## 1
Amino acid sequence: MGIFLYDHPFSPYAQKCKIALHEKGVPFESGLPNAIGSGHADADFLKANPRAEVPAFVDGDVLLFDSSIIAEYIEDRWPAPPLMPKDPYERARARTLEEVMDTQYEGITWAMGEVGVFKRAEGRKAEEMQARARGQLDNMHAWLERQLGDRPWFNGASFGWGDMAVIPFVNGASGFHGPKAGSKLAAWQARANARPSVQKCVADIANVQIPMTDVAALVKQGLFKREYRDHRLEWMMRSGGAEIVIDGIKNDTIRFSHEFK
């Protein structure tokens, strides 16, 4: 096997890695792991990532997991063009953006999907949780605008690490509650979405063949289990979703990271 990325087109973590590969012109193949979302995983996928999470990266005999580690490997393995800034402070800024998006920001948008798409809560409870999430996103977008400042890119003068770490998550949020129209963040989002590397990720999403299935019903039957991990659990516990977690454990309709074996 050459360069292969275990992927889900909707995963912002996988998109981050694909953007890096596209920006550097590295040819690769990608695909969904077997039985993803069911709580089970095949042996090849588990070999690449014993946590059974996307993305997982294969480069010959090299097997890597965690999107940040994969992105670091890509940067070191194919250094041109560089995505990480040279200045130590700017490098730290880029990594800070990545950390915030990977954890706190993703926890909000993931929870909005749990409620809005997977129907973990309904009625007044759902609206209360969604309203809380929208307010949190407004605060996150204000923080991102402060980080952007007067720069054209989060990385500075050119597109780079900070931008590829932010755009998949902001695009994902836009289906629920994106940046305000006319804002600096919305203008940055439009610039980022014009890049071929990002457009390819958007095309991957558009090309997903999703059967006409009631995913909320599959969740209730325990046939599709969304993964609850650190920042996602934190959001639920702090934002009124404790009973969702408890019910999910009781009814075996959620999953946690696969245990190493």
## 2
Amino acid sequence: MPDVYARDLDLNLLRVFAVVSETGSATEAAKRLYLTQPAVSAALRRLRVAIGAPLFISTGRGLALTARGARLRAGIDSHLGQLVASALDRPSFDPRTCERTVRLGLADSLETWLLPHLMRILDAEAPGIRIAVVPVQFRTIATELASRVEIALTVADPLPATIRRVSVLTGGFVCLYDPRHAKLRRTLTEAVYFAHDHVVVGYNGDLRGHVEDSLGKQRNVRCAVASFASVGALVDGTARLATVSSIAAASIRESRPHLRTKPLPFELPTGSADLLWPATTDDDEALRYLRDTIIALCKRLNR
């Protein structure tokens, strides 16, 4: 512990001392401080003991500072004012002048879909805010939020109460395919779906994906990857199918517009993504601005 904190000095005593030295009267100081006169006198005695020297002398008309008291008064005048101002000040936030680097955790399926739009907004409104993207997914998000990530947007399991969460994206799943090679009819049937080869995204290092976990049916999986970054390339130019969220499909088709989607021939639980942040940053104005911006952007893009 720094030595200044280790010393046995109640800093409230300095406030009492300052008011007494200003008024020259323990009685008048008591009125201003909403204390009793004995309480003020007791505080002055405690401060004298802590300082090790008399701070006032009685003049018959009130209290006058000793030389030691005058030095103490000169030393604390500016500091007490600054401390009170700092405690009561509510800093104004202007995104146009904010200089900040924010570590943003993003699921890979959302990075290409969200980040370009977000950066265009920041270019116009907050050119001094810089974004450092950290890849996250549901298995790592709790650890990342406890260490280096300030805001995250991803699918998440139940998290500690110290993590705030707002659902910002919901959507179903679709079948992504290349119509030049996968000749699917207008209505995709379950038989045709399971007859094709598939690309799946999973995090277990096996050939299971959302369909296997939800339906208990095994597809003919030709390739399992740990992120959505390569799904479009693995479907493009082949007859393979990929079952992805509608959000991921939209992101993939931005760079591969010749790919198509079809509704699945069965029901899957709706997917969702949450905006997450540590509760300790609730009152951080820059992070609040960025969270509000992301929420509004997700609403617009989701429509």
## 3
Amino acid sequence: MTHKAGFVAIIGKPNVGKSTLLNKMLGEQLSVVTPKAQTTRHRIKGILNDPEYQIVFSDTPGIMQPAYKLHKKMMDAVDSTLVDADLVMLVVEIHERALSEEVAERLKNLVVPFILVINKVDLADQETLEQKVIFWKELLNPGAIIPVSATEKFNIQPLVQTIVSYLPASPAFFDKEDISDRNVRFFVTEIIREKILVNYQKEIPYSCEVVVTDYKEEPEIHRIRCEIYVDRESQKAILLGHKGEAIKKLGTDARKKIEKLVDCHIYLELTVKVRENWRDDEKQLDKFGYNEE
């Protein structure tokens, strides 16, 4: 049988469950998953390997109207992904009632096929689902409409097979042992950012950026030093907490998950620094890797 391989861009508004869906298809947690919007900031490639195919998924930030230069960089990553794609997968959730102007504009400019995935169908009855299928077919006429529930792992394999049917004949682009194009340092920062999203409220998670400054692998332990950047001194105080209790909990939660990732004991040191308005600072965004998407 001819081997297939291709790039699939996953797009959609924030909170439609794109990252959860990617993780379920891969059987690995590559993308940060929380109930909060703007969880995904970078384009993350997840690689699904099979003897007969290789799917290279690009999980993109949720499409939004930019409020900072950071958001503009995130939307640039979406556009870049669409240029590279062999297939675009638009993810909507079952109760989504309309298409945002940002998504519609990107779909208009597509030169490759796209399919539509209706996520969270476990939250609706059959009649509602049937109505939504008719609605999206009339509005967009995608190549296929696949109902899924990422959290319940419903219809995941049929979705994968549908994707494979659109892939061109091609050898694999990456080694069949790879599951992502990102390195361990990147996933360390994503884990820490995930724990910030879970442990802190309001503006704090969206004002933080994480950078690994040192990573030393010793026979019995990996020693990791990270810097967490925030916009203001008041945010630094909240991140640290009373007598450093909040940052200690953050470090413990992150360390446990990093240990599972690398299968080794971890010493994790976290330092909080202030970089005012970093989300609108071109030099800081460049330092944090947003110009490399």
## 4
Amino acid sequence: MWSALSNLGDAALTMPLAVTCAVWLAMSLLGWRSATSWLMLLAAGALMVGVTKILYAGCGVQIRAIDFRVISGHTMLASAVWPMALMLCLPANANRQPRVALAMGLALAAVIGTARVFDDAHTVSEVIAGWGVGSLVTLFYVRWKNAPVLPAKLRPLAVASLLTVSTLAYGHHAPIQAAIEMYSPFLCGRGV
């Protein structure tokens, strides 16, 4: 069960989902600049994850006192992408829609993070860091640009496309971790 939940945060699913969200953000009332802003924030979050993974895998950097090695990428992506997908899918009715979608998306990301802990992929501190970074990505975006609102006639298409991408990508695994483990020693000067 935990692996099935964990798969919802894999980059093989969340990255195509993020691109689909960006397309719908561009078609929302906020436009392409808004979509680009969200993708840049997401890239900044991913960069933070990548830096910690490279520092740990290649240089051995960790904080033993809190059992922290790396920021959980699954949890960061889940807490950044799923709230956005839900904001695009749920009907807008006054001020309730963004809060409900954000709460549902962040709760799902917390469950995905919990799955990562139970799968022994991450520690609690790593999942909290991932959830925090991903949450900041989306919350900062909403505070800066406002919650996305799709015209009502486009929402069924957005829902269908997001479900299709999720269904097709679910269960696949991005080879990012293997690449980090292979190349990080060279980046830290420990390569052969």
